[in-house]
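S1.2 Input.
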Amino acid sequence: MDEKEIKTIYIEDFKKNKEKAIYVDDDFVIIDTWTGIPDIEDSVKLGCFLVALCLEGSVQLEVDNRKCLLQAGDLLLGQPGSIIQHTMITPNNRISLVGFSSSFLQQTVKIGKEIWDTTVHIYNNPVKPADEKNSNLKLLKAYKEMILTRINEEPHRYNNEVIRHLFTALFCDLIGILGKSSCHQRKDGETQENGIRQADYILYQFMELLSQDDGSHRSVKYYADILCYSPKYLSTCIKMASGRTALDLINENVIERIKYRLMHSDKSIKELAIEFDFPNPSFFGKYVKAKLGISPASYRNIKE
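S1.3 Output.
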């Protein structure tokens, strides 16, 4: 199948099948069946970070044209932009899935050399085999139980924050463990083939800049100038690597920063408009309403 025909799946796609998900919101999903991934039996491009733990049975598949075999106790790690295809699952299987949105990654991961090394390691080694201690199973099981406990108990004022922090801790734990694996490979003298595409590398450079930005920059040209690319070339690479436009990702970053400030700042709407470098409060209000469907003041009142 030609790549341009491949569907990109996001966390939003899981929300369309809520009955199959144990938990799903705008940034995270937990699901206990592989068939819960939309159209996974065909070919899909990931628009989220997906972790699959095989509990029983096995799965044969290709991740970015690499043939992989997922068996009991193994972890599959799929990064945004990765293509999963030619999937064959044994009839008796149990596979648990956890997904993290690109928006969450953007807010959480600060791209640097160590993260880049881990990214390349995952790209070249999408399956983390089980070990004698079943550490993969124990890790996901422990976090899953804590998350489900919080979901099933009577919610309190900080319920959503607790759930988000648990997902964040799980993600950071996974990345930390994988970072140690990539480091061990280098220490052991193994050569890590950097087979990742230039477009993917540019995407991670771009996402690093977004994560560091305060939300006051809203043009592709601003980021293209920093990275020394033309806006057109940067846009083409971002679209190729993520399936989304650079401007979409920029606006997503900006609106997330604005939402946070509306929720946690005592500044007036006029002061926030200045903080985010809008020419006036009216323009700021129109921007927020176009992205959220409501005015800044209305959003702040809802959160209160």
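S1.4 Remarks. The CA atoms of residues 146 and 166 lie 8 Å apart.
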